[in-house]
Amino acid sequence: MSSSTTYNPQSTSSSKIPLFDSNKFPMWKTKAMVVLETMDYDMLDIVTLGPHALMFQPTKEGVAEGERKQTPKHDYTAEDKRLIHLDIKARAAIGMHYPMIYIIWFKTMNQPKR
Fold first, then answer.
1. With a threshold of 0.70, does the pTM exceed it?
2. Which of 4, 90, 99, 105 has its CA 20 to 30 A from that of 112?
3. Are 20 and 98 in contact (CB under 8 A)?
4. In Å, how far are 6, 55, 66 from 92, measured between CA atoms?
């Protein structure tokens, strides 16, 4: 079998998010979304809807009481862990393709709303 027909699992330019270019944002966004979708179909939800917030509603005698609280890590389900992992993968895949000035700017922004 020739080398041109053998399977090569190495990344290619079509499987990587291109370097961010603010002048060509619509094209960059389209390519980035396609790459993220090939990584995992649910990743598009993480990117468009925001990170998976692990919250629960405290109850007293079956009635909601107080504000929602963050779920303790020991109570995470397998699905919660999978969605957290997708969020991390998405941030890494996108973040690695921004120029350093954008990364510094993003770090100065506030945390996402929950």
1. no
2. 99
3. yes
4. 29, 24, 35
